[in-house]
Write a structure and sequence with these properties.
By secondary structure, the chain is α+β, with helices and mostly antiparallel strands. Helix content is 28%, strand content 45%. The longest helix has 19 residues.
Protein backbone atom coordinates (compact mmCIF):
# COMPACT_ATOMS: atom_id res chain seq x y z
CA UNK A 1 0.00 0.00 0.00
CA UNK A 2 1.40 3.39 -1.01
CA UNK A 3 0.48 6.84 0.29
CA UNK A 4 1.93 10.08 -1.07
CA UNK A 5 2.15 13.28 0.96
CA UNK A 6 3.27 16.85 0.60
CA UNK A 7 5.09 17.49 3.88
CA UNK A 8 5.48 21.11 5.02
CA UNK A 9 7.53 22.15 8.04
CA UNK A 10 7.86 25.61 9.56
CA UNK A 11 10.09 26.56 12.48
CA UNK A 12 10.57 29.83 14.33
CA UNK A 13 12.35 31.09 17.43
CA UNK A 14 10.93 34.10 19.24
CA UNK A 15 12.92 36.35 21.55
CA UNK A 16 11.05 39.07 23.44
CA UNK A 17 8.28 39.17 20.85
CA UNK A 18 10.64 39.26 17.85
CA UNK A 19 11.15 36.34 15.47
CA UNK A 20 14.93 35.94 15.41
CA UNK A 21 14.85 32.78 13.28
CA UNK A 22 12.41 31.41 10.71
CA UNK A 23 12.73 28.42 8.42
CA UNK A 24 10.40 26.48 6.16
CA UNK A 25 10.67 23.43 3.94
CA UNK A 26 8.37 21.48 1.65
CA UNK A 27 8.99 17.87 0.61
CA UNK A 28 7.17 15.13 -1.25
CA UNK A 29 7.07 11.78 0.53
CA UNK A 30 6.15 8.41 -0.89
CA UNK A 31 5.32 6.01 1.96
CA UNK A 32 4.97 2.32 1.16
CA UNK A 33 3.45 0.18 3.91
CA UNK A 34 3.79 -3.60 4.10
CA UNK A 35 2.22 -5.61 6.92
CA UNK A 36 4.20 -8.45 8.48
CA UNK A 37 3.07 -10.91 11.16
CA UNK A 38 4.44 -8.94 14.09
CA UNK A 39 5.41 -5.62 12.52
CA UNK A 40 5.16 -3.23 9.57
CA UNK A 41 7.83 -2.40 7.01
CA UNK A 42 7.58 1.28 6.09
CA UNK A 43 9.68 2.54 3.17
CA UNK A 44 9.90 6.33 2.86
CA UNK A 45 11.18 8.14 -0.25
CA UNK A 46 11.73 11.88 0.23
CA UNK A 47 12.45 14.68 -2.24
CA UNK A 48 12.66 18.42 -1.54
CA UNK A 49 10.15 20.70 -3.28
CA UNK A 50 11.01 24.00 -1.57
CA UNK A 51 13.48 25.29 0.98
CA UNK A 52 13.75 28.80 2.40
CA UNK A 53 16.78 30.89 1.51
CA UNK A 54 17.87 31.45 5.11
CA UNK A 55 21.64 30.83 5.41
CA UNK A 56 21.64 29.52 1.85
CA UNK A 57 25.14 27.97 1.79
CA UNK A 58 24.64 26.26 5.12
CA UNK A 59 21.19 25.03 4.14
CA UNK A 60 22.57 23.63 0.88
CA UNK A 61 25.18 21.69 2.83
CA UNK A 62 22.66 20.36 5.35
CA UNK A 63 20.25 19.39 2.58
CA UNK A 64 23.01 17.40 0.91
CA UNK A 65 23.65 15.60 4.20
CA UNK A 66 19.94 14.91 4.65
CA UNK A 67 19.88 13.28 1.22
CA UNK A 68 21.54 10.28 2.83
CA UNK A 69 18.07 9.58 4.26
CA UNK A 70 16.26 10.10 0.95
CA UNK A 71 15.23 6.44 1.11
CA UNK A 72 14.73 4.98 4.55
CA UNK A 73 13.13 1.64 5.42
CA UNK A 74 11.76 1.23 8.95
CA UNK A 75 10.55 -1.84 10.80
CA UNK A 76 7.77 -0.73 13.15
CA UNK A 77 6.40 -3.05 15.83
CA UNK A 78 2.77 -3.20 16.89
CA UNK A 79 3.54 -1.09 19.96
CA UNK A 80 5.23 1.65 17.91
CA UNK A 81 8.90 0.72 18.42
CA UNK A 82 10.96 1.29 15.28
CA UNK A 83 14.38 0.39 13.89
CA UNK A 84 16.08 1.22 10.60
CA UNK A 85 15.94 -1.76 8.23
CA UNK A 86 18.28 -0.50 5.47
CA UNK A 87 21.24 0.66 7.57
CA UNK A 88 23.89 -0.73 5.17
CA UNK A 89 22.26 0.93 2.15
CA UNK A 90 22.24 4.31 3.90
CA UNK A 91 25.89 4.07 4.97
CA UNK A 92 26.97 3.09 1.45
CA UNK A 93 24.93 5.97 0.00
CA UNK A 94 26.84 8.37 2.24
CA UNK A 95 30.07 7.70 0.30
CA UNK A 96 28.55 9.19 -2.86
CA UNK A 97 27.07 12.15 -0.99
CA UNK A 98 30.40 12.86 0.71
CA UNK A 99 32.12 13.03 -2.68
CA UNK A 100 29.50 15.54 -3.87
CA UNK A 101 29.96 17.65 -0.73
CA UNK A 102 33.73 17.77 -1.19
CA UNK A 103 33.32 18.69 -4.87
CA UNK A 104 30.88 21.50 -3.99
CA UNK A 105 32.36 22.97 -0.80
CA UNK A 106 36.02 21.93 -0.99
CA UNK A 107 37.96 19.43 1.09
CA UNK A 108 39.76 21.50 3.72
CA UNK A 109 40.33 20.13 7.23
CA UNK A 110 37.12 21.70 8.56
CA UNK A 111 34.99 20.05 5.88
CA UNK A 112 36.76 16.72 6.35
CA UNK A 113 36.02 16.86 10.08
CA UNK A 114 32.39 17.72 9.35
CA UNK A 115 32.04 14.70 7.05
CA UNK A 116 33.74 12.43 9.59
CA UNK A 117 31.24 13.54 12.23
CA UNK A 118 28.32 12.83 9.89
CA UNK A 119 29.69 9.35 9.16
CA UNK A 120 30.07 8.59 12.87
CA UNK A 121 26.49 9.69 13.40
CA UNK A 122 25.29 7.12 10.87
CA UNK A 123 26.37 4.39 13.27
CA UNK A 124 23.44 5.48 15.43
CA UNK A 125 20.75 5.85 12.77
CA UNK A 126 18.06 4.38 15.03
CA UNK A 127 18.67 7.23 17.48
CA UNK A 128 18.18 9.77 14.66
CA UNK A 129 14.86 8.21 13.63
CA UNK A 130 13.45 7.70 17.13
CA UNK A 131 14.18 11.28 18.20
CA UNK A 132 13.14 13.00 14.97
CA UNK A 133 9.68 14.48 15.46
CA UNK A 134 8.72 14.29 11.79
CA UNK A 135 9.09 10.49 11.84
CA UNK A 136 7.20 10.33 15.12
CA UNK A 137 4.26 12.23 13.62
CA UNK A 138 4.18 9.81 10.68
CA UNK A 139 4.60 6.55 12.58
CA UNK A 140 3.11 7.04 16.04
CA UNK A 141 -0.34 6.12 14.73
CA UNK A 142 0.81 2.49 14.50
CA UNK A 143 0.77 2.28 18.29
CA UNK A 144 -2.60 1.42 19.82
CA UNK A 145 -1.53 2.36 23.35
CA UNK A 146 -3.72 4.94 25.06
CA UNK A 147 -0.69 6.60 26.64
CA UNK A 148 3.02 6.32 25.89
CA UNK A 149 6.34 8.08 26.39
CA UNK A 150 9.36 8.73 24.22
CA UNK A 151 12.60 10.69 24.39
CA UNK A 152 13.51 13.45 21.98
CA UNK A 153 15.95 16.36 21.88
CA UNK A 154 15.26 19.87 23.11
CA UNK A 155 15.12 22.40 20.29
CA UNK A 156 16.30 25.33 22.41
CA UNK A 157 18.79 23.61 24.74
CA UNK A 158 21.09 21.73 22.39
CA UNK A 159 22.36 18.44 23.79
CA UNK A 160 19.59 18.08 26.38
CA UNK A 161 16.94 15.37 26.23
CA UNK A 162 13.28 15.73 27.12
CA UNK A 163 10.71 13.06 27.94
CA UNK A 164 7.39 13.48 26.12
CA UNK A 165 4.21 11.89 27.46
CA UNK A 166 1.51 11.40 24.81
CA UNK A 167 -2.18 10.57 25.29
CA UNK A 168 -4.28 9.11 22.49
CA UNK A 169 -7.85 10.26 21.76
CA UNK A 170 -9.56 8.37 18.95
CA UNK A 171 -13.06 9.64 19.72
CA UNK A 172 -12.28 13.27 18.82
CA UNK A 173 -14.32 13.22 15.61
CA UNK A 174 -17.34 11.21 16.75
CA UNK A 175 -19.68 14.19 17.12
CA UNK A 176 -18.96 15.28 13.52
CA UNK A 177 -19.06 11.75 12.13
CA UNK A 178 -15.40 11.87 11.11
CA UNK A 179 -12.46 9.56 11.69
CA UNK A 180 -10.06 11.74 13.66
CA UNK A 181 -7.20 10.80 15.96
CA UNK A 182 -5.60 13.24 18.40
CA UNK A 183 -2.20 12.80 20.04
CA UNK A 184 -1.62 15.36 22.75
CA UNK A 185 1.13 15.65 25.31
CA UNK A 186 3.61 17.59 27.37
CA UNK A 187 7.28 17.11 28.17
CA UNK A 188 9.79 17.60 30.97
CA UNK A 189 13.60 17.79 30.77
CA UNK A 190 15.41 14.56 31.61
CA UNK A 191 17.94 16.59 33.60
CA UNK A 192 16.18 19.75 34.75
CA UNK A 193 19.13 20.98 36.81
CA UNK A 194 21.51 20.73 33.86
CA UNK A 195 19.14 22.54 31.50
CA UNK A 196 18.48 25.29 34.03
CA UNK A 197 22.22 25.71 34.61
CA UNK A 198 22.95 26.08 30.89
CA UNK A 199 20.16 28.64 30.57
CA UNK A 200 21.38 30.66 33.56
CA UNK A 201 25.00 30.62 32.33
CA UNK A 202 24.50 31.31 28.62
CA UNK A 203 21.05 32.77 27.96
CA UNK A 204 19.70 34.63 31.00
CA UNK A 205 22.00 37.65 30.51
CA UNK A 206 20.44 38.32 27.09
CA UNK A 207 16.79 37.83 28.09
CA UNK A 208 16.51 38.80 31.74
CA UNK A 209 13.65 36.38 32.44
CA UNK A 210 14.02 33.44 34.85
CA UNK A 211 14.06 29.88 33.56
CA UNK A 212 10.51 28.49 33.22
CA UNK A 213 10.33 25.38 31.05
CA UNK A 214 7.26 24.37 29.06
CA UNK A 215 6.68 21.98 26.16
CA UNK A 216 3.41 21.06 24.45
CA UNK A 217 2.64 18.75 21.54
CA UNK A 218 -0.61 18.16 19.66
CA UNK A 219 -1.19 16.33 16.40
CA UNK A 220 -4.50 15.83 14.61
CA UNK A 221 -4.93 13.03 12.08
CA UNK A 222 -7.74 12.59 9.55
CA UNK A 223 -8.20 9.09 8.18
CA UNK A 224 -10.70 6.68 6.64
CA UNK A 225 -11.30 3.84 9.05
CA UNK A 226 -13.03 1.79 6.35
CA UNK A 227 -10.13 2.14 3.95
CA UNK A 228 -7.43 1.33 6.50
CA UNK A 229 -3.74 1.95 5.93
CA UNK A 230 -2.14 5.34 6.51
CA UNK A 231 -3.85 8.56 7.58
CA UNK A 232 -4.97 11.05 4.91
CA UNK A 233 -3.88 14.34 6.47
CA UNK A 234 -2.15 15.40 9.67
CA UNK A 235 -1.17 18.63 11.41
CA UNK A 236 1.23 18.76 14.34
CA UNK A 237 2.07 21.82 16.45
CA UNK A 238 5.00 21.80 18.87
CA UNK A 239 5.84 24.55 21.34
CA UNK A 240 8.90 24.76 23.58
CA UNK A 241 9.65 27.56 26.04
CA UNK A 242 12.76 28.19 28.13
CA UNK A 243 11.44 31.36 29.76
CA UNK A 244 8.86 34.08 29.28
CA UNK A 245 9.92 35.66 25.99
CA UNK A 246 12.13 32.86 24.64
CA UNK A 247 10.29 30.14 22.72
CA UNK A 248 10.38 27.79 19.73
CA UNK A 249 7.46 26.82 17.47
CA UNK A 250 7.39 23.93 15.02
CA UNK A 251 4.51 23.06 12.68
CA UNK A 252 4.51 19.83 10.65
CA UNK A 253 1.78 19.17 8.09
CA UNK A 254 1.16 16.03 6.01
CA UNK A 255 -1.19 16.63 3.05
CA UNK A 256 -2.38 13.64 1.04
CA UNK A 257 -1.62 13.81 -2.69
Amino acid sequence: MEQRYKVDTRNSIELKGINIYQDSKSQEWSVVLEKKEDSYIVVIMRSTLYDSDAEKNLKSLLNMVEDVYARIALRVSRNGEMIVDNRTEIINHWETIQENIMATFGCDDEMKTFCENVREGLDNIDHYVKRNMIFFVLLSTFSRREEFEFLTDSFLSVGDSIKVNIKRNESAGESAGKDILIHEGRAVPVDLRQMRGKYDDKVFQYIGSPFVYDFSFISRYEYDNQKGGMFDNAVCNIYEQMSDGYSFKNRIEFISL
